[in-house]
Design goal:
It is a single chain. The protein folds into two domains: about 5-215, 3-Layer(aba) Sandwich (Rossmann fold); about 225-280, YebC, transcriptional regulation domain (Alpha-Beta Plaits), CATH 3.30.70.980. It starts with a strand and ends in a 5-residue tail after the last helix. The model has no long low-confidence stretch (mean pLDDT about 95). The protein is of the alpha/beta class. Helix 2 runs parallel beside helix 4 (about 135-145). About 35% of the residues lie in helices and about 30% in strands. Strands 6-7-8-3-9-10 form a six-stranded mixed beta sheet. A hairpin with a 2-residue loop joins strand 4 and strand 5. The protein is built from ten helices and 14 strands. The chain binds adenosine-5'-triphosphate. Adenosine-5'-triphosphate binds near residues 39, 42 and 43. Pfam families: ABC_tran (PF00005), DrrA1-3_C (PF13732). Belongs to the ABC transporter superfamily. Keywords: ATP-binding, Nucleotide-binding, Transport. InterPro entries: AAA+_ATPase, ABC_transporter-like_ATP-bd, ABC_transporter-like_CS, ABC_transporter_ATP-binding, DrrA1/2-like_C, P-loop_NTPase. GO terms for molecular function: ATP binding; ATP hydrolysis activity.
């Protein structure tokens, strides 16, 4: 399913939470919605799912308005975490799957598969309330897609997960993508977005600062980050042509270049015809781009 937002606006009385949002998410894509707290991510998700109305603009699925879409095609992990505390893990997943119209045999196979993938086998017959927060979140995650939706929205799915569980979730998202599921998610952790997303939208106070492919965003800045290890002193590096700034990061220097064409002449100077241990010209990380575009800290 292709999702298209055109000029979407959401106002709460005088306050504009989402202001003229436009983007398209193609089938099988992983799309990241990023922005600081209060940027309008959850509001956008809720409008896409028709849990609240937009003030103006249109949201369509394959050209059809959401109100006419079979809800079983959609999956949603809301920001508020919650499962039935007294229900056992397996019962919980059976409940959610059957609620969304899954046949029991197929549902059981899916549950077996995802319980194993998320390393929850030992917790299968435990009541949800006895699980750690991270494990409860994994159960809720599985519940959001156990019915095999075509389009899955995950609001901050990585928050509260340890690095091992974060990897399990990343792999699960990639597996769902392989199965053709379209995934839209938000995250404050830019490395997750960078590793997973094909496309993204960067929101600031309800306004889109960028919407498109990650590579196109990176190309806006170019390969202007040069990391190197050299004996050339800091004050000489600062004076080289094309160097905007130099930061020291442990035993390395990180240079910000005017543009990537200066890298070659810098290489000549710092290597001086000798072996050089590190000289790496890169795009800025998404985290650096985000901080530059949005300003301040992400959290
Ligand atoms: N029901 C409401 N009434 C009034 N204002 C609201 C309402 N819901 C959300 N807002 C405001 O709209 C803005 C966007 O909120 P939203 O929850 O979409 O942000 P978010 O990007 O999901 O933030 P976070 O990262 O903190 O979850 C915020 O300023 C919020 O206070």
């Amino acid at each position: 399913m292709t999702l298209t937002l055109e000029h979407v606006v959401k106002k709460y009385k005088d306050f504009t939470a989402v202001n003229g949002l436009n983007f398209t998410i193609g089938r099988g894509e992983i799309f990241g919605l990023i922005g600081q707290n209060g940027a309008g991510k959850t509001t956008t998700f809720r409008m896409i799912l028709d849990l609240q109305d937009q003030t103006s603009g249109t949201i369509t699925w394959d050209g059809t308005p959401i109100k006419k879409i079979n809800r079983d095609y959609l999956g949603y992990l809301p920001e508020e975490r919650g499962i039935f505390p007294q229900m056992k893990v397996e019962e919980q997943l059976l409940f959610f799957g059957e609620l969304r119209g899954m046949k029991r045999d197929e549902l059981k196979k899916e549950i077996d598969f995802w319980i194993a993938r998320f390393d929850l086998e030992e917790k299968r017959h435990e009541k949800a309330e006895t699980l750690s927060k991270g494990n409860q979140q994994k159960v809720q995650l599985i519940a959001s897609f156990i019915h095999k939706p075509q389009f899955l929205i995950l609001d901050e799915p990585f928050s509260g997960l340890d690095p091992v569980n974060r990897d399990l979730l990343k792999n699960a998202i990639l597996l769902l993508k392989d199965k053709g599921v379209t995934i839209l998610f938000s995250s404050h952790q830019m490395d997750n977005v960078e590793e997973l997303c094909d496309h993204l939208c960067l929101l600031k106070r309800g306004v889109s600062l960028f919407s498109g492919s990650l590579l196109d965003l990176k190309k806006q800045y170019g390969k202007t980050k040069l990391t190197l290890r050299t004996n050339v002193p800091l004050n000489e590096l600062e004076k080289l042509a094309g160097v905007k700034g130099v930061k020291v990061d442990r035993d390395e220097y990180v240079l910000t270049l005017v543009d990537e064409t200066f890298a070659e002449s810098i290489f000549e100077v710092v290597s001086n015809g000798q072996y050089i241990e590190k000289f790496s010209l890169d795009y800025l990380s998404l985290d650096e781009i985000f901080k530059d575009k949005v300003g301040g800290n992400v959290e």
